[in-house]
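Weekly structure sync, notes
Attendees: PL, DS, HV (note-taker this week)

Item 1: Nucleoside triphosphate pyrophosphohydrolase
DS walked through the input record. Source organism listed as Ectopseudomonas mendocina. Sequence as pasted into the shared doc:
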Amino acid sequence: MYQLDDLLHLMARLRDPQHGCPWDLKQSYASIVPYTLEEAYEVADAIERGDFDHLPGELGDLLFQVVYYSQLAQEEGRFDFARVVDGITSKLIRRHPHVFPDGDLYGAADAAKLEEAAVKQRWEELKAQERAEKAAAPEQLSLLDDVPTALPALSRAAKLQKRAAQVGFDWPEALPVVDKVREELDEVLEAMSENDAEAVAEEIGDLLFVVTNLARHLKVDPEAALRAANGKFERRFRFIEQSVREAGRSLDGCSLEELDALWGRRRSWRSKLPVAEHSSRMKSAKRLIRPARTASGLTRGFRAGAAAP
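Item 1 (cont.): predicted structure, written out as tokens:
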């Protein structure tokens, strides 16, 4: 079985100026970033689908991204993979003094027994200390300095809100956030009534930001929640497509009412059914598709953003 050193050797071979891969030789830090993001999402997707057969492969793809950046840096004399490993190991030892009280990875000192809340508080304190040490001008240090701008927008919003909450700039509970969601929605409607496209975009941004804040207060990961909603929408729409095909029809030949009936029928079913029961219900679904066309367009469920299984 291949080991980590073999992967590092492979990467060096791919980047060999004389005998390496032409494609790999042309890559840079910036050109690899899209692949890194894609591989990270594929790891998340495999985990959320419970696909543990393919998860090792996806994790390997993500690990290869780290190896790739390290090889580029080594070629430029900046750092190597060993420094990456040393850096993360040192940081985790430093941030877990309750596990490594003497700061030694293999030390024999007894670990301190702490509650989870105390561990989290200590973690944030240590991160704040590290930010202060990195700052060129500590008096200008911001809590938001190291929140990556490249994060997905919902994730970055949640992280910004979490940082602000550390100094008490936050709602005390979820219910006031619900009121704020309603307020922002009213502002979207007002901008719509004035036919102000720029204001609509701004107000929708504010609405998304506040909904993200509500998710944070309810301990819901907004990115994961939206991915789940996307998946439910996809399953329901694929069901509609399959039902229409099995009826010998096309989507653009179905009326609004027909599509809406299928959408509602799929919503009322469980996402996973025994094969025989699924087949029986698919036959029932075909009867919902009437031959006459009366309208076209998106269903009410689509417009409302309904995404039940």
